[in-house]
Amino acid sequence: MAKKILIVDDDPDLVEAVSTILESKGYEVAAAYGGFEGLEKAKTENPDLIVLDIMMPDKDGYVVCKELKADPKYCSIPILLLTAVISKLSTTRYTQQMGMETEADDYVDKPVEPEELVRRIEVLLSK
User: Fold this and answer.
1) Across the chain, what does the average pLDDT equal?
2) I need a labelling partner for 66 at 20 to 30 A (CA). Which of 8, 16, 80, 82 fits?
3) Whether pLDDT at 118 is above 60
4) DSSP states of 25-47
5) Which CATH number is correct for 4-126, 3.40.50.150, 3.20.20.450, 2.30.42.10, 3.40.50.2300?
6) Interatomic CA distance for residues 85 and 77, integer angstroms
7) Confidence at residue 85, expressed as pLDDT on a 0 to 100 scale
8) Which residue ranges make up each domain of the chain?
């Protein structure tokens, strides 16, 4: 059975691009377009891994990550933060410290090469 990956990002173009990449590698993909929807889908879709954006208007990825990692039902789901936060540190309320305080399993900056994204996902799924 194919591994299911939940992509949570408020950018529909990015969700579509990442979905296409992952589906071409045989993964089943579910999508959510904000933090609140991402939390709900994490609970209903039972994903094997979550690719999570940080900067979202309704509930940011740091909060989503912390909530999932604090819940015994979902804390074992690997979370890969995929974000442009580092390039926007000076213009947003986000800090590197906030990222370090989450229990995310990996972190990659946007833009990311498709091969690198798939490699990181495969490493997390193999643990």
Assistant:
1) 88
2) 16
3) yes
4) TT-EEEEESSHHHHHHHHHHH--
5) 3.40.50.2300
6) 22
7) 54
8) 4-126
Are 54 and 101 within 8 A, CB to CB? no
Closest CA to 7 of 72, 73, 83: 83
d(CA 70, CA 23): 29
Write out the two tokens for 12. 């529909």
94 pLDDT more than 60 = no
- Give tens-digit pLDDT for 1-24: 899 999 999 999 999 999 999 999
Q: What is the number of alpha carbons within 13 Å of residue 89 lying toward its C-beta?
A: 8
Quote the pLDDT of residue 50: 98
The upper half-sphere exposure of residue 48, i.e. CA atoms within 13 Å in the direction of its Cβ, equals: 15
Phi (first) and psi of residue 101, to 5 degrees: -80, -15
The mean pLDDT of 70-92, rounded to a whole number, is: 77
